[in-house]
TrEMBL record, chain A:
Record-given protein name: Carbohydrate ABC transporter permease
Keyword field: Cell membrane, Membrane, Transmembrane, Transmembrane helix, Transport
Protein family per UniProt: Belongs to the binding-protein-dependent transport system permease family.
InterPro entries for the chain: BP-dep_ABC_trans_perm, MetI-like, MetI-like_sf
Lineage, uppermost ranks: Bacteria, Bacillati, Actinomycetota, Actinomycetes, Micromonosporales
Compartments reported by the entry: Cell membrane
Main localisation: membrane
Membrane topology: Multi-pass membrane protein
TM regions (residue ranges): 12-33, 73-92, 104-125, 137-160, 181-204, 241-262
Domain ABC transmembrane type-1 positions: 69-262
Coiled coil: none
TrEMBL record, chain B:
GO molecular function, one term: ATP binding
InterPro entries: AAA+_ATPase (IPR003593), ABC_transporter-like_ATP-bd (IPR003439), ABC_transporter-like_CS (IPR017871), ABC_transpr_MalK-like (IPR015855), ABC_transpr_MalK/UgpC-like (IPR047641), Mo/tungstate-bd_C_term_dom (IPR008995), OB_MalK-like (IPR040582), P-loop_NTPase (IPR027417)
SUPFAM superfamilies hit by this protein: MOP-like, P-loop containing nucleoside triphosphate hydrolases
UniProt name for this protein: ABC transporter ATP-binding protein
Organism lineage: Bacteria, Bacillati, Actinomycetota, Actinomycetes, Micromonosporales
Species of the source: Paractinoplanes globisporus
């Protein structure tokens, strides 16, 4: 009896939190399916009276969005890939080796992570224009790397530190070079850490707005979060809200898919059974 | 397969602590050498220097006649079994065992063949596709061994491979390791601090203390002719009894009365103010079970028996006595170093099981003074050690079967001893 009461209580809270979190999402989805001409009716409903795909059609035919989507995908993927590779080596060195200035490096990384991005926007804008990388992919990838790396290095070195030293020593005795031990033993064991870092970095690049809007001016490099603010309706008398919502749904989907796919990998305690438990 | 020469090896950690101090040891091709010593004496450090995971501060390490000091672990062609096995959790048992061969790009059929052979030998065949996390302790241990033996390595190095297993499994795996080593004939260095493993497994035992090599020899040599107090106290279970003594005018004063020091062993000592006498528990006997001719050669004394333990094959009697303050500190330090639970203020006596002595009474005991070891009270050096006898013991070459049987017997004795002690 008491058990059931307790579990009901948990269910209640669970549902409450779910509703709380899902409500804005549902509202976004619902809006994106409403007719742009009539969604501001005098008798508003939560769900659309008639479900229409017009918003999505408009969004995907709008070159503003399609080019932004392309920019977003490539910039986020490239920045994430680079960040993960660089962070992997840096984190390994920090976790496993002793070198002068290690403490300094770590605290600098932390300082960068805490540095207010807004303060950098002005100087970067000028510098990028002088260097000729204003409004280019590389112009966004570089600051993204800068801000993503500290956190990536910290997370990954935490993961590397958990891997018993003996794994590597065993590999060395078994005949592996340092590189082979790293590739065949350390990376597979650190995979959950690598995935976590990759996803966090990807989300950061995917959602970033401030730099994206400041360092771009055209379709060449503008990413989706920045592009959304440039949306106009089909005519200037229409509100662009439904289009923006449709675009938002489209950019949210990859995030949801990524989380669902890698949920297991992120959670998996892959080192279980390495040593006697 | 190769011989290992350790010459004046020193390991000084960054804090200046000499974990291994000037150790020299020649290990012949195919020999099974055990490294023993109390915790922190540098056994693992020495082993890790051999395998290349620890830099050598000074001295030379030769494997198969080649100097290895500067070589990376992968170039030494040695196989090591770690204390906690260090299996690769992301690989199956098959791939764990195959790992060293994969690194050398051995062709697939060859890998499969050799892994299957090893799995056969270690009874792992039905577990080959499982992950280490799903195996029992003993199975993981065998996988670690499998990974070592497929290598065709020049030598095996074991660092306390059985210490994570329960007592029964440890016994099984111990015989398995002995069998495997005889079968493969690979040079082996085996670190342990377990008495039974040390006595039964190897051809020779090397005893380390605070980074210094104390004595190297067969189990029999260490047991019967220890070089010093430390080795005497470390080897043997229950441990040797240590008592104060005094040599005066060809006589030895012991806590049980004065005996003659005229015998060939004791006469070597000469007059000395204070010595430590070492008597193994089995050097004592119930006087009623000693025949008359023998009785006269030894010393009979009366003692208060505190507790007795009858084990079927033997009877242990515990005799309390007061340790005089002169040797107390020396013995206390020894005790601390050896981590022994044995109280030094009681004598442990192993008598014939037929003895009628019972707890809480007085008993007539007998011992042969000529079997006594005499140690210098200050340095701990064994004054009665006979180097020629050591040499003779060295010559005894027992066949393999006899060795394993002897191993089993010692094991049975020590295990049956453990139970009543706890009770
Ligand atoms: N990395 C290190 N830095 C400094 N001192 C160390 C280091 N590793 C070990 N030592 C010291 O070296 C000594 C020998 O250590 P070692 O691990 O070889 O002992 P051991 O004989 O294997 O002991 P155990 O039976 O407990 O495994 C110890 O006193 C230890 O404190
Ligand atoms: Mg050790």
């Amino acid at each position: 009896m008491a058990d059931r009461k307790v579990s009901n209580w948990w269910t209640f809270w669970g549902v409450l939190i779910l509703v709380w979190a899902l409500f804005p999402l549902l509202w976004m989805v619902s809006l994106s399916f409403k007719d742009p001409a009539t969604f501001r009716s005098s008798t508003p409903t939560f769900f659309p009276k008639t479900w229409v795909w017009d918003n999505y059609k408009t969004v995907f035919t709008d070159s503003l969005f399609t080019s932004a989507l392309r920019n977003s995908v490539f910039i986020a993927v490239i920045a994430t890939g680079l960040a993960v590779i660089i962070a992997m080596f840096a984190a390994y060195a920090i976790a496993r080796m002793n070198f002068p200035g290690k403490k300094l490096l770590l605290s600098m990384a932390l300082a960068i992570a805490m540095f207010p991005q807004a303060a950098l926007v002005g100087p970067l804008f000028n510098m990028w224009r002088n260097l000729g990388i204003y409004d280019t992919w590389i112009g966004l990838i570089i600051p993204y790397l800068t801000f993503a790396l500290p956190l990536s290095i910290w997370t990954m070195s935490a993961f590397f530190r958990q891997i018993p030293w003996e794994m590597e020593q065993a590999a060395q005795v078994d005949g592996a070079t340092a590189w082979q031990a790293f590739r065949k033993v350390i990376i597979p064991l650190a995979a959950p850490g690598v995935f976590t870092t990759a996803i966090l970095t990807f989300f950061f690049c995917w959602n970033e707005f401030l730099l994206a809007i400041s360092l771009t001016s055209t379709d060449r490099a503008r990413t989706v979060p920045a592009a959304l603010s440039f949306f106009t309706g089909a005519s200037q008398f229409q509100s662009p809200i439904t289009y923006i919502m449709a675009a938002s749904v489209v950019v949210t989907i990859p995030v949801v898919i990524l989380v669902l796919v890698f949920q297991r990998r992120i959670m998996a305690g892959l080192t279980a059974g390495a040593v006697k438990g | 397969m190769a011989a290992i020469s350790i010459r004046n090896l020193v390991k000084r950690y960054s804090d200046g602590f000499p974990a291994v101090n000037d150790v020299s040891l020649e290990i012949a091709d195919g020999e099974f050498v055990i490294l023993v010593g109390p915790s922190g004496c540098g056994k693992s450090t020495l082993l890790r220097m051999i395998v290349g995971l620890e830099d050598i501060t000074s001295g030379d390490l030769l494997i198969g006649g080649e100097r290895m000091n500067q070589k990376a672990p992968r170039d030494r062609n040695l196989a090591m079994v770690f204390q906690n096995y260090a299996l690769y959790p992301h690989l199956t048992v098959f791939e764990n065992i195959a790992f060293p061969m994969r690194l050398k790009n051995v062709p697939n059929e060859e890998v499969t063949k050799r892994v299957n052979e090893a799995a056969d030998l270690l009874q792992l065949t039905e577990h080959l596709q499982r992950k280490p996390a799903h195996l029992s302790g003993g199975q993981r241990q065998r996988v670690a061994m499998g990974r070592a033996i497929v290598r065709k390595a020049d030598a095996f190095l074991f660092d306390e491979p059985l210490s994570n297993l329960d007592a029964k499994l440890r016994g099984q795996m111990r015989t398995e390791i002995a069998r495997l080593q005889h079968q493969l004939g690979t040079t082996t260095v085996y670190v342990t601090h377990d008495q039974t493993e040390a006595m039964t497994l190897g051809d020779r035992i090397a005893v380390l203390r605070k980074g210094l090599l104390q004595q190297v020899g067969s189990a029999r040599q260490l047991y019967e002719e220890p070089v010093n107090l430390f080795v005497a106290g470390f080897i043997g279970s229950p441990p040797m009894n240590f008592l104060p003594g005094r040599f005066k005018n060809g006589q030895v004063e012991t806590p049980f009365g004065t005996v003659s020091a005229a015998g060939p062993r004791l006469s070597k000592v000469g007059d000395r103010e204070l010595v430590i006498l070492g008597l193994r528990p089995e050097h004592f006997e119930d006087v009623r079970l000693v025949d008359a001719t023998k009785r006269a050669q030894g010393k009979t004394f009366t003692a208060e028996v505190d507790v007795t333990e009858w084990l079927g094959s033997q009877l242990y009697a515990y005799v309390p006595y007061d340790a005089p303050s002169e040797v107390e500190s020396q013995l206390e330090e020894l005790e601390r170093e050896l981590d022994s639970e044995q109280m030094r203020t009681q004598l442990v006596v192993a008598l014939d099981a037929a003895s009628r002595i019972r707890s809480g009474g007085r008993a007539e005991l007998w011992f042969d003074p000529e079997r006594m070891h005499v140690f210098d009270a200050a340095s701990g050096e064994n004054l009665t050690r006979d180097p020629d006898r050591v040499f003779e013991l060295d010559e005894i070459e027992r066949p393999v079967e006899a060795e394993i049987q002897a191993a089993d017997k010692t094991e049975a004795a020590s295990e049956s001893k453990e139970t009543p002690e706890k009770a």
